[in-house]
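New here. Your pick:
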Amino acid sequence: MASQESTSLPVRSMQVARVLAAAGIAGQVRELTESARTAAEAASALGCDVGAIANSLVFISDDEPVLVMTSGRHRVDTTALAARWGRGRLRRATAEQVRQATGQAIGGVAPVGHPRALPAVVDEVLTDYSRVWAAGGTPHTIFPTTAGELVRLTGGLLLPVGP
């Protein structure tokens, strides 16, 4: 795995690392030499199954940003998820909406470290993996965690996000 643990992480990643430490999460944010912008890139860089990559996706629902942590092995079925979650229609946030809601850029959105907590869902498929990897605030930073930790960190609901 091409990575380096660093005390000189990017500012956004340091914010994420502080939240993780405060929550008692053992996994450390680390910087990859390769991009982890997509689930496939992250899985390749880490040598893990693409399903163990926890993508942090921002959608707009009921006029507010929401966070959906999904396994890299499938796409979000927005109609099915909105119905399960009891929310209005989900539509993908624009790059600007993502940055406003999270302070982070698409491809590097972490589950935490945002200006304010977002309503969240964690994909139940992530429980299939004993360790999952989430972005650390930039497209080159990641951290190891579990589905249970993601639920606790985000205050989210564990729901199926696929069809």
